[in-house]
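Thread: sanity check for a docking pose with pyridoxal-5'-phosphate

Original post by kr_44:
Hi all, I'm comparing my docking run against an independent structure prediction. Below are the sequence and the ligand SMILES. Could someone generate the full complex and paste the structure tokens? I mainly care about where the ligand ends up relative to the chain.
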Amino acid sequence: MGTSAKALDAIKNSLGIPSRYPDGSAIELRKNLANFNNININNIICGNGSDEILSMFANCFAGQNDEIIYSEHGFLVYPIATKAAGAIPIIAKEKNYKANVEEIIKVCSSKTKVCFIANPNNPTGTYLTRDELITLRQKLPINCLLVIDSAYAEYVEKEDYTNGFDLVNKFENVACTRTFSKIYGLAALRIGWAYASLDVIDYLNRIRLPFNINTIAQNAAIAAIQDQLFIRKAIKHNNIWKNYIEKELIDLGINIIPGVGNFVLAQYNNIEQANNCYIYLEENNIFVRKVSEYGLADCLRITVGLEKENIYLIKIIKNFIENN
Ligand SMILES: Cc1ncc(COP(=O)(O)O)c(C=O)c1O
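Reply from moderator J.T.:
Ran it for you. Here is the predicted complex with pyridoxal-5'-phosphate included:
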């Protein structure tokens, strides 16, 4: 769906003042986030993409000889952030491509300082329910911070799902990250944020660089929050076209890992078929994501596109299946 026209206007209107430093506290943006989400501004920190904040969690709460847990097919920024902090990555097994509370608890130790859960996860699209997250929090060591990465939260309409805010309100050792890169369509401007207890926010602010979000990004994000009509349209569009892509792929004999989010994880008969389909799509100007580095070499992640792109995608995959 691209970017809200109002956010694009805000970007154009911000171009005239590059000689001034940005607001280092992102006050207006945090005010808008607080109002829109009905939370306290002091519990919010903004980052240069949520990637920066994920990295800050690792740097703040873990160091040499500490352990950070994430799940088998978890988002790949977690190992990067863990290793950059000098900590030890610990990988918990998944069940049916979904993070599993028991498996996470099995690999916990007295050295576990952070547990990252992408909810829903990229690239599997699977999620832990609110009840599962509460069980996880109750079973994790008390001094291990549970970071719920809700980058795709806006797309999820399941009743048993939580974006994590209620858990932050309930537990001091839960934090939640969000982003403007997905439904808000501002990935290039790098802007994300976290909601956490005052203590956690205080620690993060001690290592945050003073001007981590530029003025254009701050203004664009404010305008984007204020254009919720665009967000509602994007959710509706995603529901319709994600269902369409999934149904068509199933009809073509391709397995779908059932997930929520703005992408489909298509599982082929084998690695060779996935690779050949990837090449065929590329030759036809369709660029999807190989996910072999996630341990999913027989899968491709396909992001929901515009109507004509989705129809073209299915046409090309149909040609591929018929000719291979
Ligand atoms: C699960 C998840 N978390 C976080 C991010 C990072 O987003 P950002 O652009 O805010 O750094 C992504 C981006 O792909 C993601 O898939």
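Residues 5-226 form a domain with the Aspartate Aminotransferase; domain 2 fold (CATH 3.40.640.10). Hope that helps with the comparison, let us know if your pose agrees.
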